[in-house]
Every structure is written in C-alpha cells, then in structure tokens.
Amino acid sequence: MKSLHTELNKNLGRFDEAYKFHLNRKLSIETIMSIEPRAFSIDSLRLLIVGVNENYTFDPFQGIYNSLINSGKIELISNDSLKDKISMFQDLIMDFKEEEDNTMNFTTQDLYPFLLSEATLDNFYLIHVNGIITKEEELRAKEKYVKLIESDIYEAHLDFLSGWMKSIFEEGPILKEEMVSIINLLESEIETYN
Length: 194
Hints:
Helices cover 81% and strands 0% of the residues. It is an all-alpha fold. It has one domain (2-193).
C-alpha cells in the first residue's frame, strides 16, 4: 500500500503537468481564434501557434499498480471500497489516455499535414532554430502567420482540435478526483496498520 501510495502521488504530479499543458493549449486555440493577428508581434504569434501544435500526454507509472493487480495481492486489502476503486482505476486512465490519443492523432494526421501544405513552417524553422533573422524575413514570416491565422481552413482545424480536446476536460477531472480519493483511502489504511 505504501508503494502504491508513492506511485499514485508521483502520477498525480504527472497528471497535473499534462492537464496544465492541455489547458494552455486550449487557451492558445481560443486566443488565436479571437485575435486580430496583425496587432501581435511575430514572437507572440509564433508562441501561440507553437502552443496549438505541440502534443503532450499523461504517462503514468504503473509498475506497482500492475503488480498488485496481476499478482492477486489486491485481495490482501480489506477495505472493499479501496479495493473497488483500485480495480476500476485502470479504466479511468484508459478513458483519459484515449481522449489524449484521439487529440494527438488529429494533430499528427490532419493539422500537421495542413500546416506543411501551407508551407508555413519554413519561416517558423528559421525563427525557432536560429533566432536571428533579417527584418525582411521577419515581415515575410509574420505575413505567413497572419495569413494562416486568418485562413478559414486553419480555423476549421482549430474547431476540430477543440472538439477532440473537449473530452480531455470531461475525463480529466474525473480521473484526478479518483486518484486523490485512492491516495486518501490508502493514507487512511496505512495509518490503521502503523
């Protein structure tokens, strides 16, 4: 139980990090869809586009959890409520990860190819990697960013991406609540046996 408690606490931190990323991505999407891009600097536009494009997933440690389930040692836990929660926890993780995977798949299979077809990444690469460009290159890059952001097709991609992400924000709080509940029950049980 102590080992599982430690593992779940680490996973709670990892979940919070992943969920924060998803919230920031959502904010980038909402911002891009509501701004007048010409009023923003090229660096601000680049950061918003990068914020939309990046993928991140919750990857929990599960060695102790899997050992507990696969070895049958879960039966050693006398608290039936805790045992049930631990048994069902994997399903919640899978539900959340499925939503992340759907979002990642849309990004890699639809959004990235669109961006490449629009040739928006040539100047992005120049700015992102080198950091030093001429004023003329900066103006051309900004114009490409503005054209991209004002594109109806890009907006449609962002609408779809938001749609895929919606389930992350439905499943995420449920997963976190259950993780915290299991951690609290484990603490209670550990105190009982100490």
